[in-house]
Structures are given as C-alpha cells and as structure tokens.
Specification:
Blueprint (H helix, E strand, L loop, with lengths): L2 E7 L4 E7 L4 E5 L6 H13 L3 E6 L5 H4 L2 H8 L3 E4 L3 H10 L15 E3 L4 E4 L2 E7 L8 E5 L4 E5 L2 E2 L2 E2 L9 H12 L7 E4 L5 E2 H7 L8
Parallel strand pairs: 3-4, 4-5, 5-6, 10-13
Antiparallel strand pairs: 1-2, 2-3, 7-8, 8-9, 9-10, 11-12, 13-14
Amino acid sequence: MIKVQSFTFNDFQENTFVLSDETKACVVVDPGCYTRAEKSQLQQYISDHHLNVVVLVNTHCHIDHVLGNYFVKETYKVPLLIHRLEVEMLRMSVVRAPVFGFHAYEESVADQYLSEKEKLVFGESTLDILFVPGHSPGHLAFYSPADGFCIGGDVLFQGSVGRTDLPGGNAETLFDSIRTQLYALPDATVVYCGHGSPTSIGREKVSNPYVRAKN
C-alpha cells in the first residue's frame, strides 16, 4: 500500500507529495520547497519515517513545482524524471524565478524522461503514467490502480481546472486530457491536486463547472 504525504510550500501554495510503501522506498513529486524552513520540513519527514528517496519526478515544470528540485537531487543523490516536452519549461525556470521573487532559485536538469508507455516503479509499488497535456505541454499524472489515487498536478482541481493562459497551455487540449484520461478512471479515485484540497473523479465528473463527463 502506498502512503501519500502532502506538504504545502512556497508563495503559490503548491502541494508537494512524498509517496512511500512498506519497503520505505519513496518518491518525491513536485518539490516546491524554497525556504530553508520548507526544505527542513520535507527533510525531517523523510528522516523521521526512515524513508529512502529513490527518485524525483515532476508532473510538469512550472516554477512553483520545481523550486526544490535541486535540493532534493543534491540531498538524496537521486535522478530527476520529467516528460521530454517539459525540458524547455524547466530550462526557462531560471529566467522566470526572479520575476516571481525567487531570487535564490537553483537550477536543475532532467536525468531521464518519462512517457505514458512506461510505469513508475519504486519499492514494491507501481504507478501508471498518464499523459495529460493542456496546462503544460508534457504534463503527467501518476495513478495507482491498487490504492485508488492519482497525483494529478495542475490538471484538475476541486471545482476547477488548470490555467491555460500560461506558456504552452491550451484549453481544448486540457479538456480533452481530463475527459479521456482522468474521467476514464474509477469514480472513487482520489485526485491529489497540485494546489488545494484533494477531490475525486466521481465528484468532478458531475459537478466541475468547466469539464463535465460526456453522457
């Protein structure tokens, strides 16, 4: 069984996730930790639970989701995995960081690339990889059929959807990703969002004002 631990970091109130199983292996998803206190909070949780960080992944590479990439990579000596279409987004973060006041941002580069044709394996656990572009060109989501949850990044929120007015965004593509990829998951699936509270696929299919499930 995969345990999902969330942290809310930086001025954008971004959700960072640590996924771990019984083997103590864990994955860090979208580390938004920027301040010393935020980095310490993440590190303390990993230490207190005797976890072994084996990989770092980004759902997408907007600045609020990658602020802690360098810290996690260097602290735990793990590779960073992203979709190939997010390379330019990650590269541009060094330019965009100061615009949003993150003057101490430390640049990171991807070590490997993920695709929806693969699975993310750690410890004794496996996550399906979903390709869900629209908010960002190479946006990914990570779904656990066994545990009934999805790490959705900034695609689908409780009662809302990800912005499409940012570089690389496209509303039509986003809506298609939600309908064909996320709404295809079981209704009981819990969606852990990149911002705000978790929701469920069933709830959003019937009540999301932006994207309803097609009858």
